[in-house]
Amino acid sequence: MSSNENSEENLPSAQGEGEHGSVERADNPFADPGLPAHRPRVQDIDERAARRSERVVAFLFTLSMIATIAFIASYVAFPVDKIVYIFPIGHVSALNFSLGMTLGVALFCIGAGAVHWARTLMSDVETPADRHPIEADAETKAQVLADFKQGAEESGFGRRKLIRNTMFGAMAMVPLAGVMLLRDLGPLPEKKLRTTLWAKGKVLINMNTNEPLRPEDVAVGSLTFAMPEGLEEDAEDFQTQIAKAALMIVRIQPADIKDKQEREWAHEGIVAYSKICTHVGCPISLYEQQTHHVLCPCHQSTFDLSDGARVIFGPAGHALPQLRIGVNGEGNLEALGDFAEPVGPAFWERG
């Protein structure tokens, strides 16, 4: 059978031909299907189910409060260096693990409680609204306020006091975790920034040989670095202590010392000054024998060790603190006290 012999009912015109010969579809794929019929939840028709959901939400909010209290307790209870084994993670910091777990539980429970509240107790009726200009007219504003009041009533916020009170408690306590985190800005300095390990009777130890320094060990024009007796390089707080107590020893001809106090605090021309630059705390290590100047390699602050270590160039704002020294009965150089002022950078203008 040829195509010319097809029956007319099989031709497009028999099925319905459009204006331009195209076939029209009986259905529209882009038609608005509308909202599905609203199906009430079990909580909408059974008050006992609603009560159960209320208790679940309250339990989550209460658990959040307990987790926040545990967060604060962990911050106080666990030392920073305590390591514990937790399967399958392995060895971790007890403080970090406890803080992460408790804060995570506190935030999760608030979120889970809010979601469960919205899904089971708040109104789930969908109301379509046409798009409108950004600026609302008076009628729209009034409608928004009315909708808000209606939503508040339907949420049960006013009559479900158990949920409301536990939510307020959870939301009020979670910020306490952030307040506790302010502790990590640093421990209270107390007097730690004002004092060092130097004290009366502390022997000067050569940092190169780890032996006590004697006056004859310091030659004129030489630069020697010292630390206080009893400070060990393998000590846990070595870096913290040496950052304040590092000392540089220089021997100058007594006649070349211009500052009266420097001469009185020296021993036979041997002067001891802090090695920590008063600009940003860099260690000073460059010494000019002829001028008695020391130079900070970071920002080129220059100090005159023959004149009270005053600043003669650079951004440093204060002279280097001097340590008063003498000789003990064994012939070793010793400190006669601590530095008279804080070591290092401006230290809040020597507050």
Automatic annotation (TrEMBL):
Comp. bias (Basic and acidic residues): 17-27
Subcellular location: Cell membrane
TM annotation in the entry: 56-77, 97-118, 162-182
SUPFAM superfamilies in UniProt: ISP domain
Main location group: membrane
Recorded GO CC terms: plasma membrane
Keywords: 2Fe-2S, Cell membrane, Disulfide bond, Electron transport, Iron, Iron-sulfur, Membrane, Metal-binding, Oxidoreductase, Respiratory chain, Transmembrane, Transmembrane helix, Transport
Translocase among keywords: no
Residue ranges of the region described as Disordered: 1-41
Domain Rieske per the UniProt entry, residue ranges: 239-334
InterPro entries assigned to the protein according to its UniProt record, in alphabetical order: QcrA_N (IPR045603), Rieske_2Fe-2S (IPR017941), Rieske_2Fe-2S_sf (IPR036922), Rieske_Fe-S_prot (IPR014349)
Functional note: Iron-sulfur subunit of the cytochrome bc1 complex, an essential component of the respiratory electron transport chain required for ATP synthesis. The bc1 complex catalyzes the oxidation of menaquinol and the reduction of cytochrome c in the respiratory chain. The bc1 complex operates through a Q-cycle mechanism that couples electron transfer to generation of the proton gradient that drives ATP synthesis.
Protein name: Cytochrome bc1 complex Rieske iron-sulfur subunit
Organismal lineage: Bacteria, Bacillati, Actinomycetota, Actinomycetes, Kitasatosporales
